[in-house]
Design a protein that fits this description.
The protein is mainly alpha-helical. The chain contains 12 helices and 4 strands; from the N terminus they run H-H-H-E-E-H-E-E-H-H-H-H-H-H-H-H. It has 3 domains: 155 residues, no CATH class; 35 residues; 83 residues, no CATH class. The protein has a two-stranded antiparallel sheet. A two-stranded antiparallel sheet has the order 3-4. A hairpin with a 4-residue loop joins strand 3 and strand 4. It comes from Amphimedon queenslandica.
């Protein structure tokens, strides 16, 4: 599509391109981005006061004078714009949301051929107003009423784009994708960790652990009047041997490291996953640490 003259927002560009064809017009506006449609609907070129607008001569009873496009029509008919490019009146609604006029639509012969839509209104300006005036009959036509409904709906949806079903679905989709990316990252990190440590994949549930038992319940801070509970990662430990003796030795080494200044005699609870080497209270790491 050719560029607008002097950067003006002017639907005359679309009319020129359609070249008198309803089909071409429909296809052109169908491919206009919503932003552009909104621009045409709300920010169309408006002539300034004092601009000389299009005029044509009228001859009556041997007398000839000029009638011109009247600026105040633009205020009276909100769908009407003046195309600087085509020097005449056009209907923003019918151009952007075109419907072919129906028979018996109350349109004058001139309008059925697409005045305001496929060509600019340039004459006769002397018959613009009044009950059967060109502007009035266009306003009342079924084609125009429908186009206006669609234009209003378009603007409402445009202003509330966050409430539109399509953008809500898009938002939900994006949210789900973000969540899945996060989950995938965690899975990869876990697999990497297990592989590096030579640990098996295991599925188990911790809900069999009975926290009311004496050996798991000692964390209740009854001896101190003002307990401060802090949760932190103490260390990653490389294991040379993965048996109960080796693991518990490493754990105790880590806990007694001078940098931690922890008193291991005050340990009041242990928790492990369900692997027997860790949790067995006969020969597992749990038993060894208790010793
Ligand atoms: Zn119209």
């Amino acid at each position: 599509m050719e560029e607008e003259v002097d950067g003006l927002i002017d639907l005359g560009v679309v009319i020129r391109e359609a070249n008198g064809s309803w089909d071409k017009l429909r296809s052109l506006v169908q491919h206009l981005p919503d932003e552009k449609k909104k621009q045409y609907l709300s920010h169309h070129f408006k002539p300034s006061h004092g601009d000389t607008l299009h005029s044509h001569p009228v001859t009556k009873k041997g007398r000839t004078w000029k009638v011109s496009f009247q600026q105040h029509w633009l205020l009276e008919f909100t769908w009407l714009s003046y195309s600087h490019l085509l020097s005449g009146g056009i209907c923003r609604h019918c151009i952007l949301f075109p419907e072919q006029p129906e028979r018996g639509d109350g349109l004058g012969q001139g309008n059925r051929s697409g005045t305001f839509i496929l060509s600019a209104y340039q004459h006769p300006y002397s018959k613009a107003l009044g009950k059967d005036g060109v502007l009035v009959s266009h306003s009342k036509s079924i084609m125009h009423v429908r186009a206006t409904e669609r234009a209003d709906l378009f603007l409402r949806n445009f202003h509330h784009s966050s409430e539109r079903i399509d953008s809500r679905l898009l938002q939900q989709g994006n949210h789900l994708a973000d969540e899945n990316k996060h989950i995938l990252t965690q899975i990869v990190l876990t697999v990497e960790f297990l592989a590096k440590q030579g640990l098996p994949f295991r599925g188990h549930r911790d809900d069999k652990v009975d926290f009311s038992r004496e050996d798991t319940n000692r964390a209740s801070p009854s001896s101190s009047s003002n307990p401060q509970i802090k949760e932190c990662l103490v260390s990653f430990i490389h294991l040379d041997r993965a048996n109960a003796v080796g693991i518990s030795k490493k754990i105790l080494e880590a806990l007694t490291h001078p940098s931690l200044s922890l008193n291991i005699h005050k340990i009041c609870g242990q928790a492990y996953d369900g692997a027997a080497v860790m949790s067995s209270d006969k020969a597992g790491v749990q038993a060894k640490i208790k010793e």
